[in-house]
């Protein structure tokens, strides 16, 4: 695989992992566009480790605070958020791998993401002026379980994990920045868990990509991921997720049109 393509995939992974637009959906589009049947498993693991590093670096102060009280209520809630997706991912891994092999559901999945993002912006606008939402201290178990269940849907490519979880928080009147924090911190658990499951396959296979390419992909993913997190936090301070709803709606319609008529990508 060419170095430039590896870097581009890293940038796409980093940006779309944290922007509410579905990283898996965008990677499928670009892999199809560039004629990459499937990214090397070693590259996939490294790109996800890059996004993991970006979360750890951005939230390093928050994480240090959390580690001082590892069994605090908030820490346990973060762990609880990952449980539904973890169970679904392990039990139905073969099914989801077959879904990833097909782009037939990609357009409808993007449209579903658009609807979720748009509805979350409506829910947010209905809040009383000056109401800042639930904070770390008063986010409840039901709020967390709802966020976790919404996260399960994001196993399908085209349905954004960050979009689903942040929107779920907004539906439950969680403060926007706290909803984003819960979503992004939760990605640490999910990325680690998913990559641990890939270790046996990685060790038994051949690494068919150079160390230089892996390092370039890692850097591209980590840097773009950090920028995406910073951008999202600043955006949420003043704006809703509605612009992203318009974007993924347009993308979903294009994918449907392309798959049936244009055939530019699919």
Strand-residue proportion: under 5%
How are helices and strands ordered from N to C?
HHHHHHHHHHHH
In helices, the fraction of residues equals over 70%
Distance between the termini: 21 Å
Q: What is the makeup of the main sheet?
A: none
**Overall pLDDT level:** 89
Low-confidence segments, given as residue ranges, are none
Can you characterise this structure?
- The structure is a single chain.
- With 266 residues, the protein is mostly helical.
- It has one domain.
- 76% of the residues lie in helices and 0% in strands.
- The protein has helices at residues 3-18, 23-33, 41-58, 60-68, 73-91, 93-100, 106-125, 141-153, 161-171, 176-204, 211-238, 242-262.
- Helix 1 runs antiparallel to helix 2 (23-33), helix 7 (106-125) packs antiparallel against helix 12 and helix 10 runs antiparallel to helix 11 (211-238).
- The longest helix has 29 residues, at 176-204.
- The model has no long low-confidence stretch (mean pLDDT 89).
